Every structure is written in C-alpha cells, then in structure tokens.
Amino acid sequence: MIDSILTFCDEVLSNPVWFYVITLLIKIVICFAITILFIPVCVYIERRVAAWIQDRVGPNRAGIPLSIFRRFGAKSDLPFKKTLDYFGLPHDGKIANLCRFFRLDRDIPIFGLVQPMVDGGKLFLKQDFTPPFVRRVYFWIAPILVLAPPLMTAAVVPFAGDLHTSYGNVNMAVANLSVGPLWMFAISSLSVYGLVLAGWSSNSKFPFLGGVRSSAQMISYEISMGLSIIPVLMIYSTLDLSNIVEYQAANGWLGEGLSWQRWILLVPIAISFIIFLTSIFAEANRTPFDMSECETDLVGGYHTEYSSMKFAQFFMGEYAAMVVGSSLVITLFLGGWSIGFGLDGWLNEHVANWVAVICQLIAYVLKLLFFVFFFVWVRWTLPRFRYDQVMKLGWMVFFELAVINIFITAAILYFVK
Fold first, then answer.
1. Residue 75 belongs to what H/E stretch?
2. Per-residue pLDDT tens for 80-139?
C-alpha cells in the first residue's frame, strides 16, 4: 500500500506540469501562512512591548491566581508551599527562590496569550452592524481592498534560497517576477482605494476626513518610497528580488564585501534605507503617521462606522502591510533570507540543501520579528505628528532628498565603477 502511494507520488512529481503546480500551491500556503500568522503575532508583540515600555502589569505579568485552586488552600501563598511540599522541595531553596523571581508563587503565568484570543473572539461575536445611511456596496468592499493588497505583494518576496530536488529546482518565491519592485508598488498602491472608499461610503464627516487624509498621505509617501529604491536598483542592476538577495548573499549585505567601493556606496544606500523605512510607516498608517485614524482629531477616522470583522479587517490589513513592508526592507537592504557573515556559502558546502533552506527561512523570520518589534517600539516611543508636519516631511524633505540621492548614486557609480 505504502509502496504504491510512493510510486504514484513519484510519477506525479516526475511530470513537470504537476511538479510546478504542487510546488506552487505549497509556496502559496507557506507565504500566506507567514503573512497571516504574523498578524496575531504582531498583535501579541504589540501588547507585550507596549506593556513593557509603559510598565503595565496586564499583558506581561498577569496570570491565573493560584488561590482559585481551593484544594491547595484559599490563601495566596499556601498553594505554592503545598506544591513545594508535594515535590519534596524546601521552601527556601534555589528552586523556590527561582519560582518567586518569576512570580510563580502567586499565579500561573499565561504570558498575555489570553487577551489577544479574547479580542479575536470579541470581534467574531460582535454584531456586524451596517448603518442605514452608508453606501452599502462600497462600505463592504473597502475592508477587502485594505487587506488584499499586502497579501498579494508578499507573493514576489523570496523567503529562502532555491530548493534543489531530484525533480527540479524550486524557487522559494510564490511568483518569481523579473519586475518584483514594480509589482510591489503597483499592488500596494491599491490599499489607498480601500481607505478612501471606507471614508466616503460611510456618509459621515469624520470618516470622510480620515479617507481624504489617508489618500493624500499614502500618495505623497509612495512617491518618496519609489524614488528611494532607484539607487538600490542602480547598484544591483536588476529588478528581480531573488537576484538581489543572491547578490547580497554572495557579496555581503549592502555592497561588495569589505571593499572601499562598498563604504562609499553605503552613503546613498543609508539614505535610501531611511527614506524607504519611514515611508513604510506612512504607508501602513503606523504611529507617528496615523493621521487618517487619529482619535484626537477624527474619533476613529475612516473606520469609525465599522464594527465586528469589518473593523478587524482594517487592522489586519495594517499589520499585514507592516509585515510585508518589513520583508521588503529586509529583502532590499539587509540580505533577505541571507544569514550573512559567510555562513551561506558554508551551509551550501557542508550541509544538505534542504537544511540550508530551513536555516535561511529561520533567518528570514528572525529578521522579520526584529522589524515588527521595531515598528511597535517606534509606535510607543514617538508622539504623533501634526498633519502639516507629515505633508512637509513627505514633500519638502523626502522627495527632494530621494531625487538628490539618485544623482549621488549615479555619480559614485560613474567614478567608482
């Protein structure tokens, strides 16, 4: 039975068409799993980091109190002592002191996992109310237009190196397009339609103002973001994201090894990195650029009239945009799946290819986690800008700086190379 199944699988995978279809479906599942599963991870990290920065008890230290277990005793310290006695451990020993350090003498730690789950359950169970005065079709379409573009953008991002099999090589990007950055900007720009439609279709003053703000802000920073990667593409001489990552894996991140040419090129690359990363904040409507939904001015902004899962889709789209934006920063500037420090070549020479691919996937996820933490850290560190400051930064600082940076890169490449 097992032999017949293995023979059938071997025959199916030996067909190039079925091999392509099956590997494509697996890549789609992995890509969207990373993006979708990172959304609750982002919510969890947001709560934990916010509580850590603000020194709040809830998400980090609250747990299930031991006093609820009546069979151990009703007093707060009695269950802990009874537990130590049950295992024959001294009350003043090292293990007991270690448990007190982690507050295990008071409660069972749940690490803030219950609160995100309760939030999700609350959004699922809330009434999906649609106000009678809205434009219904556009009101329902808007949340989808916010969530779908980040997921489609993730399709061109390679999350590991090529996997070599006996049936053929598998490129670890869902769609290995030769114009990856162009696809990225073409699809990500569609998110603005969702925000504008949400504000306009709500037939309410504050959501409309939030939609207008979002359209102006996202268009402004899309220009700066697009101009900022031109120096990077000039250096790499390709629009293929897989080739860009392979170039960095072979020559070192942000340049060619430790040559003096690399240190000169680091200047325009650093400028592009700052502009691109800041523009990602603005595109994802993250603090300090969340002017389209700031509660101090607009109640809730473009999603004021939304409830239940429609409301949740806007925030899922925001976190998905944050994850995809972080992955683009990693891919263009920080080596993508490349582990760096010469380890990529060592893995290719000394371990099996599938082991190297798994290590590269882990490196990619770790970099992604770091940037998610960075996004959350910035949110709870910097105050919100005024709207005129946001527009001034986009048009009078980043736009001019990105254009000048293109000429600087061209001059360096002309005289250095």
1. none
2. 677 777 777 777 777 778 777 766 666 676 777 777 777 777 877 877 777 888 888 888
Query: Can you tell me which residue has the tokens 């999700």?
Result: 120
How far from 260 is each of 132, 148, 152, 416, CA to CA, in Å? 65, 43, 39, 10
Mean of the per-residue pLDDT values for the chain?
79
Q: What is the DSSP letter of 170?
A: E
Burial of 194 by CB count in 10 Å (0-12 exposed, 13-18 middle, 19+ buried)?
buried
Query: Contact 161/337 with Cβ under 8 angstroms?
Result: yes
Q: How many CB atoms lie within 10 A of CB 347?
A: 19
Token pair belonging to 55: 């020194």
| Residues pairing with 63 in the sheet | 109
Please give the residue that has the higher pLDDT: either 165 or 399: 399
List the structure tokens of 386. 């005024």
142 Cβ contact list (under 8 Å, min separation 6): 194, 195, 197, 198, 201
Structure tokens at 141: 């379409």
Using alpha carbons, select from 149, 181, 367, 378 the residue that is nearest to residue 278.
378
User: 3-state DSSP call for residue 114?
Assistant: helix
Residues 6 or more apart whose Cβ sits within 8 Å of residue 6: none
Write the DSSP symbol of residue 398: I
Please report which residue ranges of 62-175 form alpha helices under DSSP H. 78-86, 94-101, 114-125, 136-153
Q: How far is the C-alpha of 239 from the C-alpha of 116, rounded, in Å?
A: 39
- Reduce the DSSP state of residue 324 to 3 states and report it: helix
Residue 147 carries which side chain, given as an amino acid letter?
L
The β-bridge partners of 107 are 65
Query: Partners of 64 in the beta sheet?
Result: 108
Q: Using omega within 30 degrees of 0 as the cis cutoff, is the peptide bond preceding 288 cis?
A: yes
Q: 289: how many CB neighbours lie within 10 A of its CB? A: 27
Q: Most confidently modeled of 108-122, 295-309, 339-353, 378-392?
A: 378-392
What is the DSSP annotation of 262-274?
HHHHHHHHHHHHH
Longest dimension (CA), the chain: 80
3-state secondary structure of 65: strand
- The residue length of the chain stands at 417
